[in-house]
């Protein structure tokens, strides 16, 4: 219905333009009336469910403050969200430049002798200029926060300096999205190798930057349910610690593909293959086993799984950092010693390799 409503809207605009031709007055009136009927039909067909009541209220408030527009809701929203408006408009600046170039080319064509070409081109140029101005106004209104917007189903963009947030999270199109199927060490998480320690979260972030540097990343929203009850509990704990709701976290789990030099690869799989992320769920288990067998990346070191590390207290983290101590039931990541042979009720501490 929405598509048909927009088609009727376009048809109405065409009839309005046609009605300006030098025909008999009754014919022009009939064409104009047909356009007006199509416009009313499009309005009725769209229905109230697809409209944003806040936007209507904002325009009503604007006209109510016509004598002092700075006091209107719309003006205050534009002032408060100026940064968002600028980002949205500038992100589509190239499209406006493209249309401006077309207008410039049409203006050159209109240089031809006689008025016939000018009469043909001038309405086209006026329409394109109107489209540019209308587009800018529409983007400005959307940038203020008005208008109903569907949740993104896909993200895409070139890799910039701010794209990589950490080893399993990217910033694309203004949203933080997390790669499904992996769990990379957090910033500040300690890895041990003999007596050496390092921040394996920082290493995972550097690895992610290296892996996708110079590529174009495309991510699709992945709303698959949790594969196991254990993963569901772990993710709920992480969301609580990061101040996120379960809905926010699940809506932004994505599957990402990077394209570089004509070659495509799955970003999460590559992180696991190179040994910089633990698997979460049933994906990439074979790649994880191979990375561990070949001691790639961080698998040559010993640390806790990122979801386990996030639940440890400061004292427990310090004990692991200083002495390599951790408990048998804590899942590990990398090359760590096997659990000691103790009874099922025993949970003794054990040490990372010295």
Radius of gyration: 29 Å
Largest sheet: 7 strands, mixed
**Shape, please?**
elongated
State the helicity in percent bands.
Answer: 40-55%
Helix-strand sequence: HHHHHHHEEEEEEEHEHHEEHEHEHHEEE
**Assigned CATH class of the domain at 154-326:** Mainly Beta
Return the CATH topology of the domain at 154-326.
OB fold (Dihydrolipoamide Acetyltransferase, E2P)
Mean pLDDT: 79
**CATH architecture tag of the domain at 154-326:** Beta Barrel
Strand tally, please? 15
Structural class: alpha+beta
Query: Which ranges are low-confidence, i.e. pLDDT below 50, for 5 or more consecutive residues?
Result: 240-250, 342-348
Distance between the termini: 68 Å
List keywords for this structure.
354 residues, alpha+beta, OB fold (Dihydrolipoamide Acetyltransferase, E2P), two-stranded antiparallel sheet, 14 helices, 50% helix, elongated
Question: Quick recap of the structure?
Answer:
The chain has 354 residues and is an alpha+beta fold. It is built from 14 helices and 15 strands. Helix 1 (2-18) runs antiparallel to helix 2 (25-46), helix 5 (82-91) crosses helix 7 (116-143) and helix 6 packs antiparallel against helix 7 (116-143).
How are the secondary structure elements laid out?
Layout: H1 2-18, H2 25-46, H3 53-64, H4 73-80, H5 82-91, H6 93-109, H7 116-143, E1 154-158, E2 164-166, E3 169-172, E4 175-179, E5 182-183, E6 190-193, E7 196-199, H8 200-212, E8 216-221, H9 229-241, H10 246-251, E9 253-260, E10 263-266, H11 267-273, E11 278-279, H12 285-293, E12 302-304, H13 306-309, H14 314-323, E13 325-327, E14 332-334, E15 349-351
Parallel strand pairs: 4-9
Antiparallel strand pairs: 1-8, 2-3, 3-4, 5-11, 6-7, 8-9, 9-10, 12-14, 13-15
């Amino acid at each position: 219905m929405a598509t048909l409503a927009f088609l009727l809207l376009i048809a109405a605009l065409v009839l309005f333009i046609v009605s300006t031709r030098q025909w008999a007055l009754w014919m022009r009136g009939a064409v104009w009336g047909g356009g007006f009927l199509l416009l009313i039909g499009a309005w009725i067909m769209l229905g109230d469910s697809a409209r944003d009541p806040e936007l209507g209220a904002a325009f009503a408030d604007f006209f109510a403050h016509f004598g002092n527009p700075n006091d209107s809701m719309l003006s205050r929203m534009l002032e408060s969200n100026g940064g968002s408006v600028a980002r949205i408009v500038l992100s589509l600046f190239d499209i406006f430049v493209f249309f401006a170039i077309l207008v410039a080319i049409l203006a050159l064509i209109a240089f031809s002798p006689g008025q016939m070409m000018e009469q043909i081109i001038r309405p086209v140029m006026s329409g394109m200029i109107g489209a540019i101005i209308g587009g800018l106004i529409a983007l400005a209104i959307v940038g203020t926060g008005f208008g109903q917007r569907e949740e993104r189903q896909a993200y895409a963009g070139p890799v910039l300096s701010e794209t990589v947030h950490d080893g399993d999270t990217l910033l694309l199109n203004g949203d933080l999205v997390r790669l499904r199927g992996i769990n990379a060490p957090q910033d500040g998480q300690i890895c041990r190798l003999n007596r050496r320690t390092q921040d394996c979260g920082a290493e995972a972030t550097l690895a992610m930057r290296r892996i996708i540097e110079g590529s174009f990343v495309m991510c699709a929203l992945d709303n698959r349910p949790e594969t196991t009850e254990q993963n569901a509990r772990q993710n709920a704990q992480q969301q609580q610690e990061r101040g996120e709701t379960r809905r926010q976290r699940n809506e932004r789990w994505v599957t990402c593909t990077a394209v570089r030099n004509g070659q495509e690869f799955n970003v999460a799989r590559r992180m696991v293959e190179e040994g910089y992320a633990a698997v979460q769920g049933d994906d990439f288990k074979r790649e994880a086993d191979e990375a561990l067998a070949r001691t790639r990346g961080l698998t040559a070191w010993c640390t806790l799984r990122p979801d386990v590390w996030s639940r440890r207290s400061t004292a427990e983290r310090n004990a692991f950092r200083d002495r390599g101590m951790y408990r048998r039931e804590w899942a590990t990541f990398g090359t760590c010693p096997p659990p000691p042979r103790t009874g099922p009720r025993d949970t003794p501490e054990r040490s990372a390799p010295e």
